[in-house]
Design a protein that fits this description.
Elements (H helix, E strand, L loop, with lengths): L2 H8 L5 H18 L5 E5 L1 H10 L2 H8 L1 E6 L6 H5 L4 E6 L3 H12 L6 E7 L3 H10 L6 H5 L9 E2 L4 E6 L4 E7 L3 E6 L7 H6 L1 H18 L12 E7 L1 H22 L2 H9 L5 E7 L5 H4 L5 H9 L5 E8 L5 E7 L3 H6 L4 H26 L6 H40 L6 H8 L3 H11 L5 H13 L4 H14 L3 E2 H15 L2 H11 L5 E2 L7 H11 L41 H7 L18 H4 L14 H10 L23 H4 L4 E5 L7 H6 L10 E9 L4 H17 L5 E8 L5 H8 L2
Amino acid sequence: MTQNESTLTVSDPVLSVLNKKSVENLLSILQTGIYTSNNLLVLDQQLSNLINFLTPFSKLKEIGKFEKIVWLNNEQPWSDILGSFNGLIIMCRESTDNLNLVSKLINTLPKSIKVYLVVENLSKAFTYELNQELNGDLSFNSTIELNLESQKFVKLTSTVKLYNWSINPIVLDPEDGSTGGSVLSLEQPYGGLESYYTQPLEQISHLSKAFINLLQLSPHFTMGHKMLKLKNIYAKGDHSCLLAKIIQDEKIPDYLNEQMSPLESQFYLEKTKGNTDLVILERNLDSSALAFNQLNYQGLIDDLFKIDLNNVSIPKEETGRDGMLLEKLTLQDELYHDLKHLNFASIGHKLNQLAKYIQNEFSKRDSLLHNDQTENSDLTEIKKLVNNLGSLTNKQELIKKHTFISESILNSIKFGSTSTNPQLKSTYSQLNEHEEFLAFQNDLFDLEYKAQILKVREFIVKNFDSNLVLMGVLLVSIVNDGIRERDYEIILTEVTQNYGLLIKFTLDNLIRYHILRILHTGGGATSELFGAALASLSLTGHSNEDSSTTNQSTSFQGYENLNSLGISGGGVTGLKGNFTLIDKFFNLHPQEEQVNESTEDGLLIQEYSHPTFALPSSTVPLLTRIVESLYLRDFLTYKPVNNLSRRPNWDNLNLDTFFAGKSLDINICDTSDDKRQQQRGVEGPLSRQEYQYVVIIIVGGITRSEISCLKYLEQRINAKNHGEKKKKFIILTSGVVNNQKLLDFCSR
């Protein structure tokens, strides 16, 4: 079975259309744009898994008329590779590195070779840069006038044609047959961390376009009605507010003008009942979830073995000089779908239960088949069991697969290796660094600042993996609002002596992007931050970000200065208040038991009393709490804040005291608090839908721990709101991130 076939077996028929359209766009380029035969495909390695996830390479080979594939960044001389090929197909993403590699390759080609350059989501800026590097025929004015969405190709030189591969957000996480995948990703490099911290306007542009892709598809999953209709917009963070402004004031009006007549557009905007809340948050509001290792099943697999578009390569055994023998697996099966959100401690019990069930079914079959006194009623039972044999065998294979993954996780944490070789295990167990670092994370909030610093220095002395040391430094900084300058200088000296200058470069970038904070004063936390946050908790009136209901024409009054944003997403830290008080106010470490309202089996809310199952130290991700506070307030136990409105809101939560950046709360057409509307029982066409939707956009990437906790929140809201329409979360983001991607980006 190919990767694409295995995806489609569990993929939802609605949102998977986004993936299919991306494939169709690529195949159309190859089918109508490639005129030569005997071609060579030169591929950006980062695009390889994405293409293989969307469609088999065998189909591309047939349409693109190529047999051989080489990487764009290969180290061999191109003169030794090109041979007698008639055409060169280059597929790549936009980046400075690829710009240099492509120009170097094309400038060394003989004039007889035709070049078909296919760039994912091609921009005018990249087109201009390519034209300059290749001494092309385009002028600056003609580049500006290009319509890359509609043009079949752009002719740069007599031998080079440039194509725009327009790609939709990738559906990563199919949930059920009603709305489709809950996670849609742009699959940007490093999960979008690079573009967020260096070119946020580019990411905002792609996210706004992706939202329109979702809007365009929505009639298919809103039971045949027009499309998603926003009734509320919420945003926290300057770039989040800018994205909301672009979507509401520019993208949606442009889309409606293209798709509807003026009368239809007016009816949609003024008469159609809203069915969707749009919530936009950004990564710098919470770095803790990014710094922690993850304890949910999918998060652990990603941290240890790197999930790439639901593919993972797990070391199977050591092979001496040949290195590791890798087991390549696809994480798109039914059992993974059931297990991925669970805490890893639950996985063994679930697999054991399923194994016993299958063993019992096989035993029943064998007992009936070997019974000489079989009655007619038994024959019926045998027929039933034989019919179920195929599904039981498949489940048995899935149990073996996830048992292997679970054993590999345990070995990697406990011994630093997935090996089953006892001698190698013994060698690794002397270090035991991953297990010790996990224990440090679990104890983090119980340790004093000095003890945390001493623990990090102990990791350096023991020569732990440099990434573990870096994450230890970052965690200490986050929970203490920074590291004292003297302590940082000592740690910097020690890590530089132990690991070399590259680690200093990584630390410098963490500081540059305001992820790691250095305190130039004596205290563990600055007194002004502590005082401001403490004062906010004593407030009883409305906070300065409380927003009143506004109409669309004035929805962004006061946000004109957002037009000047975009130089850097990490220009300021997202946290404005003291982390200890933020932790306490948002109850990130809940203690009291929570009563679960739902009795439906298989739900996360039946497994766990709080969403503390995905991160060490029983920590709830802060971004999850920010979303939760819109709909539920019962978790605010330190300073209870009642929600006085049926409409979701952030009133009285003092978000602007805790977090930097603007806050946005716009009521477009939510009549939840209008008693006259409720009494009249007004039912618009969209109100008859089974679901209400919450589109959550995370600028800068989302962790798998946050995905699982948002799934938990979705279930809890639906269990709490008996008799009301169920809410369905759709997460749209630049990519999936974790601490390894953060460090990889900062070490560049």
